Amino acid sequence: MDNVDLESVKSFVDTLWVIDCAILVFIMQAGFMCMETGLSRHKNSINVALKNAADFGVAVVIFWIFGFGLMFGTSWNGFIGTDLFFFKTENAEYMTYFVFQAMFVATAATIVSGAVAERMKFNGYLIITVLATGIIYPIVGHWAWSSSYLNNVDAVRQLLAVTGNLKSTGWLTDMGFVDFAGSTIVHSVGGWIALAAVLILGPRIGKYSEANKGKFTGSSFPLAVLGTLILWFGWFGFNGGSNGAMDETVPLILINTFLAAAFGLLTGLSISYYKFKKPDPFYIILGPLAGLVAITAGCNSMTSVTAIFVGIVGAIIAILVNEILNKFEIDDVVGAVPVHLAAGIWGTLAVGLFSDLSILDTGLDRFSQIKIQLIGIISIGSFTFFTSYFILSFFNKFYPLRVVNWQKAMILFITGRAEVVDEYEEIKIRSISMTFRLPKILRLLTGHTSRREVKFNRPNVYWRDNYTCQYCAKNFSHKELTFDHVIPKSKGGGTTWENVVTCCQACNCKKGSRLLDECHMKLLKEPTKPPWAPQLCIKLTKEDPEEWWYWIPWISSS
User: 365 and 489: one domain?
Assistant: First the structure.
């Protein structure tokens, strides 16, 4: 016992702790997979699961090749690392830190997969993974994290032989920006990329139509809740391992993480009872995850009471942002933007508002710390969003990122918005006058095509009104519908787009030849003329599939 080196023992314990935490963060990948698969529709569950597995492998490889070097290499003016590519070292602590950071970078990539679920091609998602793990995350990580750990590990002084410069500090670090475990650097970065991707891709087809309300639900809420609990479990490693050592700070980190998540869950539960009079599984999932994201930035520097407040506010913000996205028809399948972006921004700002300044040790007063936190949030957010939006938009012009079904593919081709790159030889779509091979690969076109007015006929009126009675707001098949003159013809009403609406037979009989005020009925929306139709029209017959009526709105019935 006399020969025991206490420093060596401490170093061993610290290394073991970081390894254990890295394993916990790895388990979070399973949590993301379960949650995202459960919140996606059953037909897309395999695709979502494979994306989660693939992005982990791609992220680790890219991070090993050049991502780690960009993030932790010798700094060029505080903006980017310039060495340590194809990472290798004989230092055990440094190896451990690489593994831990590789888990983090995989998390940032996985955040995006849930947001773009059900409509993004597998290869397109891999492009996002490379973008996130190889460019955006390492660069912004260098700004704020390049020296957060390495300068505090004595054993890493051996790296002098590798880099020639131990100190490699990013410009945000020099200013005093603090993000302990990655509310902004990991979660908001993933959220910004997710937001750019969903804006480019657009919503799932039919997601926000009145006819499809309640149909875009997850395949398995129990699986999604299980994924949430796995993420909660892994988060102890996410935050605890960011300390880099097993010391007296770790218990505070763990209890703050636990309390923020627990009160976030209770907040989501309370809001669901207030809004729906029953527990809503989606809100119960958003609540704890938003609390976890929010507390991540300041879990080492806040009191437990403050952590509770941060978790509660984080959950409220996430739920509010989720409602805003739905209002503007921005389709985020799993709530990645509300949870990771919105709650991440709040958590990073909360560091300046509530953290113990002596623990932060930045030398700044309260107001200055808040200002620096805002600078970090804005600079990282701007760089991440605009870079990802520009790159993904560029790729989307030449290699469409979105998957479309065969009906949508035909519409794109017929309207002249896409050209056929490849097609199925054996699968053909026939009408009376023409035959098409089913497109296999389409290339989107940026030019405009000739347009003409929509022909006024019964099918087109039904399509304009989404096969919904404009009086009772119920959805019907075209066989169950008729149309009605809002101002009856007997009272001077014309047969025009502005005066004819889709109507069920019951409401048509109820209204009769009366005005709306006379029969105390209201229109669901004012009828208007559709803007345009493509030049090429397809005439359907009784022999063609009935489902085509719902996908080709410009048809004429025979």
Answer: no
